[in-house]
Amino acid sequence: xxxxxxxxxxxxRPESLKEAATHYCPGCGHSIAHRLVAECLDELGLREKTIGxxxxxxxxxxxNYFNFDMIEAPHGRALxxxxxxxxxxxxKFVLSYQGDxxxxxxxxxxxxxxxxxxxxxxxxxxxxAIYGMTGGQMAPTTLLGQNATTAPGGRDPELHGWPIxxxxxxxxxxxxxxVERCTLSSIKQIRKAKKAIKKSFQCQLDRLGFSLVELLxxxxxxxxxxxxxxxxxxxxxxxxxxxxxxxxxxxxxxxxK
Amino acid sequence: MNEKVLMRxxxxxGEASVRAGCRFYxxxxxxxxxxxxxxLSARMVEVGGTFIQGESEIASINMLIGASAVGSxxxxxxxxxxxxxxxxxxxxxxxxxxxxxxxxxMRGGPGLGNISPSAADYFQSTRxxxxxxxxxxxxxxxxxxxxxxxxxxxxxxxDNYRNPVMILGDGLMGQVMExxxxxxxxxxxxxxxxxWALTGCxxxxxxxxxxxxxxxxxxxxxxxxxxxxxxxxxTAQEQRWETIMTDDADLIVVAYGTAARxxxxxxxxxxxxxxxxxxxxxxxxxxxxxxxxxxxxxxGRKIAVFELCLGQMVEDVIxxxxxxxxxxxxxxxxxxxxxxxxxxxxxNSVAKGDGKxxxxxxx
Lengths: 257, 363
Hints:
The structure holds two protein chains of two kinds.
Chain A: H1 30-43, E1 50-53, E2 69-71, H2 78-88, E3 93-99, H3 100-106, H4 108-116, E4 122-127, H5 157-160, H6 166-171, E5 176-183, H7 187-205, E6 210-216, H8 220-223, H9 227-241, E7 245-249, H10 253-256
Parallel strand pairs in A: 1-2, 1-3, 3-4, 4-6, 5-6
Antiparallel strand pairs in A: 5-7
Helix pairs in contact in A: 1-7, 3-4
Chain B: E1 4-8, H1 9-19, E2 22-27, H2 35-46, E3 50-53, H3 57-69, E4 73-78, H4 80-96, E5 100-108, E6 114-117, H5 122-126, E7 138-139, H6 144-161, E8 164-170, H7 171-175, E9 177-181, E10 208-209, H8 219-237, E11 241-244, E12 251-254, H9 257-272, E13 277-282, E14 284-286, H10 290-296, E15 302-307, H11 313-321, E16 326-331, H12 340-352, E17 359-360
Parallel strand pairs in B: 2-3, 2-4, 4-5, 5-8, 7-8, 12-13, 12-15, 15-16
Antiparallel strand pairs in B: 1-9, 5-6, 7-14, 11-13, 16-17
């Protein structure tokens, strides 16, 4: 007589994600980033006290996928909206989730000043070097030579200026305690990204200050590359301009270990 | 009864706001309204609220969006060019159905203009500079005690209708000092419950506040129709106005805010000279008190509209009165404040029909 098989759940949908199919394109990094955020919230037991602010851009509908309270913000203003939330409800966990156009172009002022005030907010910054939602226009983070519908022939610094590294700019602000850049283009990096997101969340829980995790993320549709080529382009080209790793860390967390 | 105190207009709004339950203020410096954020920078701390000097008017109005979404009574203030920058946020607040109070102490325009009192933002306030089919109630106080009443009313209207509400003054209204009596602090626990606010999804479904409706079944159309139903209710229920000496008047003067104060003195002057003039003062600019003004526009009467700009509210007067009676307009733009005697000249000119001051409106 054989014993009843004992099943142990080893993988499932995080509670912080709704049971919904996303509108993201095949190969897009948003789905991975959503899952990492959701896993971290679950593991820290934060879902029921989280209020999130999505961007205007591809993740504008994130409230259809994340299973916690969220409010839409005008384009670029997520960190101003998040500031208002966190100041009134300091015990809530407040999270912004923004793309490069939102965070590093139209919302540059809101981003820098929320960070510099040291708002107790965690920002997730998806950098895919392109305007995805509107169809492939040049982003502030578009690489030199990279094609975009508004940079035909590739980004030329004389015509279009240089790619901006806002994470390094933010690291100069005294209110910022932790900035790390990871990619969503390899299993190893994705695991690193999750650790970084969790650390950023811990910064907020410990009321240390502002923190941001930048995720270099593939956009096969607007880069006009296959999924695999997109991952390779992140790992081989994007990281030359935006090197991965810890950009700033004054948390002291490592010291405790 | 609380004691009478002598205070400046901007400070009065600040004190009234915290007594009305406001616990979040964000704003950016701009003359002539800086005394209000300065007052609240200290007062908010005393009452356990939040004061933030934002990096811009845009950031400030968006901080209001966040603070309002989690249930606080919220306020920002600015002056004309700064209000222009806030219009994006005001449109979003209307679309998101978030309450909040916006104070505009108007200055001369267009562009940088000057810092003198002006009333050239009637269109900006009542028509809105933000995108979409939305409306913003606009309250136009004409004295310091009324600043208090309007501040309390603004927060109540905002909460009751889940909509941004504007208090429209000017540089003079912000600077003038008058004795006032404040009501007691409202009990925050007795304010309207906000069962829509974001509080964290404990024992309930996750909640989203948004203004985007992409559905193909006319969801955005439906959203707009529901907003319109709300605006219709506001129009029906919230019109406010004051009449002074209109019963026997042959000439009805229409003016609001500071212009109404000047007009009132001018009316006293012309009455001394034998001209029976009276004042119709809209207190809500939107919804404009259309029917009450139309009622005053009886045969044999004339209407004289006086504004501190070159003619904006006069369009609402025309829409209200049409061709029933003769309408004349006189406006002074650019932050110049005319004396009551100058306005009296206008009123006498209208009465005589000599066309020397102001202009006859052809409808």
